[in-house]
Amino acid sequence: MSKSYKRVVAALEASGVEFTLRHEEDLTRTAVEAAAAAACAVDQIAKSIIWKGGDSGKALLFITAGGRRVDEARAETLAGEPLLRADAAFIRETTGFAIGGVSPVGHIAEVRAWIDAELMKFDVIWAAAGTPRDNFAISPADLEKISGAQVSEFSS
User: Fold this and answer.
1) What are phi and psi of 36, to 5 degrees?
2) Using CA atoms, how far apart are residues 115 and 31, in angstroms rounded to an integer?
3) Burial code of 76-106, b = ≥16 C-beta within 10 A, e = fewer?
4) What is the pLDDT of residue 29?
5) Cβ(113)–Cβ(104) under 8 Å?
6) Where are the alpha helices (DSSP H) in the chain?
7) Going by DSSP bridges, is the β-strand pair 45-53/59-65 parallel, antiparallel, or unpaired?
8) Which residue in 18, 52, 64, 117 is a FRET match for 138, CA 20 to 30 A apart?
9) pLDDT of residue 31
10) Could you give the number of structural domains in the chain?
11) What 3 state SS string does 56-101 have?
């Protein structure tokens, strides 16, 4: 069991919310792969997109519905600073996760976060649990609560 996975499970358990863990034999690095594995709609996949604050240099998390993309201009308005693309090294250094397994919870440091209003339309959503093969199901309201994310409209 990886350290990343253990951090996510610990964060979920500590939160007291209901969740379901699932391990896949096949990779679930993309929203399409994750949706196929969970037998759900692509938009029920909560992608954790990390940007680097252009002024602060800090990691900024946008939890986005699987079939949608972060609208950079809207996201910059929410963040109050320019956004820079985060490379793999920055993401691992600031979140503790590798690309393809970035979770919306269990980061090694606190991050400012926003959650896509599109995700709030579902009863259950799925997110990465720290590895490209592990995911968890949770209600959008519970993910909002435990991630500290602000519900916002930033995707297209």
Assistant:
1) -65, -45
2) 16
3) bebbebebeebeeebbbebbbbbeebbbbbb
4) 85
5) yes
6) 3-15, 31-38, 72-79, 88-95, 140-147
7) antiparallel
8) 52
9) 94
10) 1
11) CCCEEEEEEECCCCECHHHHHHHHCCCEEECCHHHHHHHHCCCCCC
Q: Quick one: pLDDT at residue 18?
A: 97
Q: Are 102 and 64 in contact (CB under 8 A)?
A: no
pLDDT for 27 equals 86
- The distance in angstroms from the start CA to the end CA of the chain is 36
The CATH number of whichever domain residue 92 belongs to comes to 3.90.960.10
Q: Is the pTM of this model over 0.90?
A: yes
Q: How many residues does the chain have?
A: 156
Q: Which secondary-structure segment (H or E) carries 20?
A: strand 20-23
Rounded CA-CA distance 151/83 in Å is 19
Residue 1's pLDDT is 74
Query: Which helix (H) or strand (E) is 125 found in, with range?
Result: strand 125-131
Q: Is residue 61 part of a domain?
A: yes
Q: In the Cβ-directed half-sphere of 47, how many Cα atoms lie within 13 Å?
A: 24
Which stretches of the chain drop beneath a pLDDT of 70? none
